[in-house]
Amino acid sequence: MSMTADAAIIGGGVIGASIAYRLAKAGKKVVLCERYDFAAGATGSCDQCVFLQSKNPGIHLKLALDSSAIFQDLSKELDYTIDYFKHGGMITIENEMEMAVMSDFAEKQKKIGLDVEIISRAEAAKRQRGLAGHLLGCTYSPQDGHVNPFKLTLGFVKAAQKHGALILIDAEVFGFKLESGRIKGIKTSKGDVEAGVTVLAAGAWSPVLAKTLDLALPIKPRRGQIVITEPVAPYVTGNLLSGQYIVAKYHPEILADSKSLAVRLGVGLSLTQTSKGDILIGATREFAGYDLRNTREAIREILKNASRLVPGLEDLHVIRVMAGLRPYTPDGLPLVGFVKDREGLFIAAGHEGDGIALSAITGVIARGLICDGKAYTDVSALDPNRFDA
Ligand SMILES: Cc1cc2nc3c(=O)[nH]c(=O)nc-3n(C[C@H](O)[C@H](O)[C@H](O)COP(=O)(O)OP(=O)(O)OC[C@H]3O[C@@H](n4cnc5c(N)ncnc54)[C@H](O)[C@@H]3O)c2cc1C
Questions:
Q1: Could you tell me the distance, in angstroms and rounded to a whole number, from the CA of residue 118 to the centre of ligand 1?
Q2: Does the beta carbon of 46 lie inside 6 Å of ligand 1?
């Protein structure tokens, strides 16, 4: 079977799905190819946070704020319930060093427009039960929220289909179609797709496909392991992160030589509860190639860390563990835009631990760049060519 489209999208994670929706809504003929099923990659093995406080002050936070504004009415727009809730979020502060870092972080975030403040331990305990006694306090923002990543992805997919997109699962992309050096589509297990624009949105696997074009992308898989508890009555209010989470995310170089196993594994608390009642306890940040296994040592360290910060969790039963691959980039920002010297290729990947939160705005940016030649705001910081020597 051979197909033609304005845009061929590789990857049925939240980013590919969001872009498929925006392009199809703009009247483009879209074909999306996913090798397994929707949300089979990081999107299906992550937390659910639309966390704003964890974003670097600057373009990173601005995009997260703009994305969060879209989430507000997205269920209605997609005509699909995505379970988005804005219950607020906190980041725990354990010592004076973290207090200094988080106070500075929060001050800078306020200047970008985030409503965030430092609250005492006593105030934090009113929002979240079971917190450790040794905490100095927390940062708090009422703007943090969460969304069901599966429903979000399916919502985008179904809305894209309503606008005429062809969405194929079990459709593995093997390579690109080339014509006089220009990328003219993709070769897949379900046939070729000839397309004006090819969108590479294969998350942590994007470099594997880019390599077939002799293109070295600065994206690396960064494993995150998560523990899932039995469903319980509402326990976690909003989302809770730890100060170490911020360090693990933005300063992996500090972690590599530490004597502490938890630190070396990049363990930072991430706590959230699903609508069904399961508590998700995360997570590690490890460079382990494409190895998707859970490890005993990481699970032990995640649980030790969680019960140190929230001793109230100790009585819960763990029923499952999972691991996903975040698409890491060296500066913590995704690559979104056309690729230099590979005419016809657009990339949208490298969202690390923020792809759920940034998915809504990534679709809007991609639509602008592809359909109008410009985005709604200056996105030069996301230029996929910025790491070129
Ligand atoms: C433990 C953990 C916790 C996280 N928590 C959060 C959070 O709370 N909030 C947040 O915003 N983000 C979070 N993230 C990050 C988020 O999950 C990712 O940034 C996001 O899912 C990336 O989406 P994606 O569509 O780019 O990639 P993916 O979801 O990985 O999708 C890529 C898709 O491409 C497909 N694919 C690959 N190769 C091919 C091929 N050759 N042909 C066809 N298809 C192919 C894959 O099967 C996959 O479905 C977390 C991640 C992890 C691992």
A1: 32
A2: yes
Question: In the predicted model, what is the mean pLDDT of residues 91-99?
Answer: 90
> For 237-247, what is the mean pLDDT?
86
What pLDDT does residue 249 have?
A: 72
Regarding the beta carbon of 351 and ligand 1, being less than 6 Å apart is answered yes
Q: Sketch out the chain's domains with CATH numbers.
A: 2-45+150-216+332-382 (3.50.50.60), 89-142+220-328 (3.30.9.10)
**Which residue's structure tokens are 């910081």?**
381
This prediction has a pTM of 0.97
Which atom of ligand 1 is least distant from the CA of 358? 11
| 14 Cα to the center of ligand 1, angstroms | 7
Q: Average pLDDT, whole number, for the chain?
A: 95
What is the 107 CA–ligand 1 centroid distance (Å)?
A: 31
> Given pLDDT bands bounded at 50, 70 and 90, which one contains residue 388?
confident
Q: Is 209 in the pocket of ligand 1 (CB under 6 A)?
A: yes
47: left (phi over 0), alpha (psi -120 to 50) or beta: beta
The yes-or-no verdict on residue 256 having pLDDT over 70 is no
For residue range 293-340, what is the model confidence (pLDDT) as tens digits? Answer: 999 999 999 999 999 999 999 999 999 999 999 999 999 999 999 999
Query: Pick from 135, 43, 131, 58: which is nearest to 354 by CA?
Result: 43
Residue carrying the six token digits 């972080």: 105
Residue whose CA lies nearest to ligand 1 atom number 53: 324
Nearest ligand 1 atom, CA 350: 26
Question: Which atom of ligand 1 approaches the CA of 14 most closely?
Answer: 25
- Four-CA torsion 251, 257, 260, 262, nearest 10 degrees: 40
CA distance readout (Å), 42 to 166, 183, 269: 22, 27, 18
